[in-house]
């Protein structure tokens, strides 16, 4: 098998609102959009983020149709403190203030308009250690 690209697809009530949030605050660009569908990317992310409108009749499998509950998008960054200050200056509500876990993960979380949690992370120690 050869994987040529990767994506994560999230079911949300308003795909446009989630897409605009990632574009405005996290530097994603829109690759394509249609009714109930928006695909975003960043050249440095390595995958696309796709927002699908909850309840689309074309969504398969039926058992997975629903909201993106219990899921978060995590992006590893080089300077977590600078990103925290930038996001706060942009007026984004912080859902989890910046903190450092004992294993070296320093992170904070925000939520998009549909409640999808966006987590920015910087490893303060080698995660393999």
Shape: globular
Mean pLDDT rating = 90
Strand order of the largest sheet: 1-4-3-2
Helix content: 10-25%
Instruction: Kindly report how far apart the N and C termini lie.
Output: 31 Å
β-strand percent reads 35-45%
Alpha-beta classification: alpha/beta
* Rg, Cα atoms, Å: 16 Å
Which stretches are poorly predicted, pLDDT < 50 over at least 5 residues? none
Record field, number of beta strands? 8
Protein name: VOC family protein
InterPro entries: Glyas_Bleomycin-R_OHBP_Dase, Glyas_Fos-R_dOase_dom, VOC_core
Describe the structure.
The chain is α/β, with parallel strands linked by helices. It has helices spanning 15-26, 80-89; strands at 7-12, 29-34, 37-41, 48-53, 72-76, 94-100, 105-111, 117-123. The strands form 2 sheets. The protein has a 4-stranded mixed beta sheet with strand order 1-4-3-2, with helices on one face. A 4-stranded mixed beta sheet has the order 5-8-7-6, with helices on one face. The longest helix is centred in the first third of the chain and has 12 residues, at 15-26. 19% of the residues are buried. The model has no long low-confidence stretch (mean pLDDT 90).
Summarize the structure.
By secondary structure, the protein is of the alpha/beta class. It contains 2 helices and 8 strands, in the order βαββββαβββ.
Name its key features.
129 residues; alpha/beta; four-stranded mixed sheet; 8 strands; 38% strand; Glyas_Bleomycin-R_OHBP_Dase; VOC_core
Write the layout of secondary structure elements.
Blueprint: E1 7-12, H1 15-26, E2 29-34, E3 37-41, E4 48-53, E5 72-76, H2 80-89, E6 94-100, E7 105-111, E8 117-123
Parallel strand pairs: 1-4, 5-8
Antiparallel strand pairs: 2-3, 3-4, 6-7, 7-8
